[in-house]
């Protein structure tokens, strides 16, 4: 009797639960999602390069003769004008050489005058037959030789005087001294650069472009900024691109000039931004987190609106991918204005109900409770 009573109670409870389950249907969860609108534009590609500010006109000054440095007149950062003295060599040896050459010149000039006097005397004697034609010819030859020797010594004297003047190094143009490579007492060779002068009025952005980016670089539009002022960008234009790669780095040096004249600190670090149209086909830039796959092909979860404004379903649609840009993926194949899911795509399923961003979920839950 006891067993029969327990069985009857159990059957009654089961019947009550079944009745309740028929009265209260299972509530389907509506998942909130994050979306982005599909907007098409020309595909652009941006690249950044580390660059430096240099002067368009920078000259290495060198002595035209060698010797021991007697004076150094400038320091790095000093502004000099054309003709200012930069450094001086010990000119003792050059003064001695100039004096010796001058003495040789005087001797040659004296010999030339003596040869001319002899020719004139022989010429007078030849008129009365006192000397032969051969003697007259020899005196003329001697005169010409002496004159040529005097001319040669004159040029040697000019060279000696020039070499004496070359012991003083003067600025060939106005500008700022960017490098000094000598000290007093140092012996320098002829033609070795000792002082560098740059024109601060013609600054340029100098960058080395990798070989595999050269073609895209030439088609780009450029902006630049300084490390000291990263938010102050300014337009620059390509002025010069090296036709030959550097043998050490295999990069091509490009020199960019500011579109509008502006003062830039020489030697400063800069960032060059190159922007170009990567494809003529319009593409949509979406967060890379929105991309998934369908049958091994790139795809996106697209929001399909239903009758209500607050609830929608999702559909997986294949798209054509055109590449990546920073943290974005470039795609096409969807109508403009569509909304795609950008987060949690691995949890999506075809037909899954989602809450449209910006809509309230309170009304939806309330309507479901009213149904129940």
Brief summary of the model shown:
It is built from five helices and 23 strands. Helix 2 packs antiparallel against helix 3. The C terminus is likely disordered.
List the helices and strands and how they pair.
Elements: H1 2-23, E1 31-32, E2 35-37, E3 40-55, E4 58-62, E5 67-72, E6 79-80, E7 85-89, H2 92-127, H3 133-165, E8 168-170, E9 175-180, E10 187-188, E11 193-198, E12 203-210, H4 214-218, E13 221-226, E14 229-241, E15 251-258, E16 269-287, E17 292-294, E18 297-305, E19 311-318, E20 320-325, E21 328-332, E22 339-341, E23 353-355, H5 362-371
Parallel strand pairs: 1-23
Antiparallel strand pairs: 2-22, 3-12, 3-16, 4-11, 5-7, 5-10, 6-9, 7-8, 9-11, 12-15, 13-14, 13-16, 14-15, 16-21, 17-18, 18-19, 19-23, 20-21
Characterise the protein shown here.
It is a single chain. The protein starts with a helix and ends with a helix. Strand 17 and strand 18 form a beta hairpin. The longest helix has 36 residues. The chain has 4 domains: 104 residues, conserved putative lor/sdh protein from methanococcus maripaludis s2 fold (Beta Barrel), CATH 2.40.420.20; 90 residues, Elongation Factor Tu (Ef-tu), domain 3; 59 residues, Beta Barrel (OB fold (Dihydrolipoamide Acetyltransferase, E2P)), CATH 2.40.50; 76 residues, Helix Hairpins (Orthogonal Bundle), CATH 1.10.287. With 372 residues, it is an alpha+beta fold. The protein is built from 5 helices and 23 strands. 28% of the residues lie in helices and 40% in strands. Helix 2 packs antiparallel against helix 3.
